[in-house]
Structure formats: C-alpha cells, structure tokens
Design goal:
With about 260 residues, this protein is of the alpha+beta class. About 40% of the residues lie in helices and about 10% in strands. Zinc ion binds next to β2.
Length: about 260
C-alpha cells in the first residue's frame, strides 16, 4: 500500500466514525418508519365503508379495540358501520382527522404502531406466549396458528386499552396457556387462555388500579371482563374475546 500512509489511514478511520455517528443521529425518514411495519402487512389501497377483503380483516384486527362501549366486534373482512365507528374512534384517539375512512394518514398511523412481527408497539409475543415457563403456542385447545391469530387480536385490544389509559405500561401476567399449564394453575384446562383469546393485566409499579383497568376495558371490545370482587380475580383483570357472549364481573369496581 505505497500511497496509504498511516496519516491517511487515520483520516479514513475518522471519516468512518463520523459516518457511523451520523447514521445513529439522523432520525429515520417517514418512509423508513412506515417500512418498519411493512414486515408484517402493507395496505395497498385506501379502505372505506363497503370494502371487503383480507385488507379489511387486517384493518379490523388493529382497530377492534376502538369499537366502543360493550361491543362484540366482528372481524369479518367487511367494512360496515361498526368498522367505521372503530376507525373514527381510533382517529380521534390519535389526533387524526376523524372521517371514518382508512386513508393514508390512518393506515400510516396503524403501520407506525405495528412491529415487523405484527404485534402492537407496546405488547410483545414474549409476554403472551406459553405460560408456566414453557413458551410457544402448542398444547392449547386450538392449533398453534390459531392461538397466535387469537393472541394478536387480544394484543391489539390491549394496545387500545393502554392508549385509552394515557399510554401507561400495563403488565401481562398471563396470555396463552397450554391445557396442562391451565390445569396446573387451577383452570379447567379448556378455558379461554388455552385458545389464546385471553390476557390478564395488572398495573405496573402502582401506576394505575385494577378497577381503572377494568373500567377502561369496557370500551375495548373485550367480551369477558373479570376483575376485583370476582372469585380469584383480586390480583389481575382477566380480559378475553370469546365470540359468543359478553360477560363482565368486577363487583368491587361496581362492574
Ligand atoms: Zn385470565
């Protein structure tokens, strides 16, 4: 290397370090932010009332938690009045123009909230996978694939709940449980946790109360809500999305 003196090597190294520093300092462009969620799903058209398809289904999974008080929101791939309401509430909650259409602004916000693995910004798969230390999604009452699909729906509702509560951290104490795990913790072995439809939440470091979680959860399309005053639910709020009924009981919270 006859032309590369030690001094030149030094300036090359300095340039390299500067480049690295800039790479960390320069904030990602909006395009780069949107691409983060593209690892999960990308919408290729705007959606509004009357639309049908898998892109509507993907939208519904992410806005279900905004369907309103005491709703059993159907994720059916059909953009009807309930979806319009959910989109309107989502838009209002995130400071967007409220029109009930899933246009560029709304889809960009949803994309911003989702991670490459499809989980919402503030909940992760590792928080909801197999209980009893087993991890994974096997041994439940439905296939592992269905368990994950159900967990995704529960996590997006939990994200809505968290945002409703002022974006405070909520702790997941139980998500999916295999049938044997469910029995070992006193469950029936076929409860909603074994379907991946249920999530148990508690405050984090006293940042809120069980009753506040239960109260706000009534607006987030969880069809079962069990909290303080219901047997064995004084130390967590159980929320699930079983499709066939709405049942709430948290007597100590007046619910
Ligand atoms: Zn539970």
């Amino acid at each position: 290397m006859p032309h590369t003196t030690p001094r030149r090597l030094g300036s090359l190294a300095a340039a390299l370090l500067l480049g690295l520093a800039l790479a960390f300092l320069v904030p990602p462009s909006p395009q780069a932010t949107a691409a983060t969620g593209d690892g999960c799903y990308t919408w290729t058209r705007n959606l509004t009332a009357g639309a049908t398809g898998t892109d509507v289904t993907q939208l519904q999974i992410r806005v279900a938690g905004w369907a309103g008080y005491r709703t059993n929101f159907a994720i059916d791939g059909s953009y009807g009045p309930a979806t319009t309401t959910a989109v309107r509430n989502f838009q209002s909650a995130y400071g967007l123009t409220v029109d009930g259409h899933a246009g560029p602004q709304t889809l960009a916000k949803i994309t911003e909230l989702q991670k490459d693995d499809c989980s919402p910004a503030h909940f992760s798969w590792s928080e909801v996978d197999g209980g009893c230390g087993a991890g994974g999604y096997a041994g439940g009452s439905v296939s592992a694939t269905q368990v994950k699909e159900n967990l995704l729906r529960a996590m997006w509702r939990a994200e809505a709940l968290r945002h409703r509560m002022g974006d405070i951290p909520l702790r997941v104490t139980s998500g999916f449980r295999s049938q044997s795990c469910d029995r070992s913790v006193g469950g029936s072995g076929t409860g909603q946790h074994t379907y991946g439809r249920a999530i148990d939440l508690t405050p984090t470091n006293g940042n809120t109360t069980f009753c506040a979680i239960a109260g706000q959860a009534r607006y987030t399309s969880f069809t079962t809500l069990l909290g303080p005053g219901y047997p064995d639910h004084d130390d967590h709020v159980h929320l699930d999305i079983r499709p066939d009924r709405i049942f709430w009981s948290a007597p100590s919270c007046g619910i």
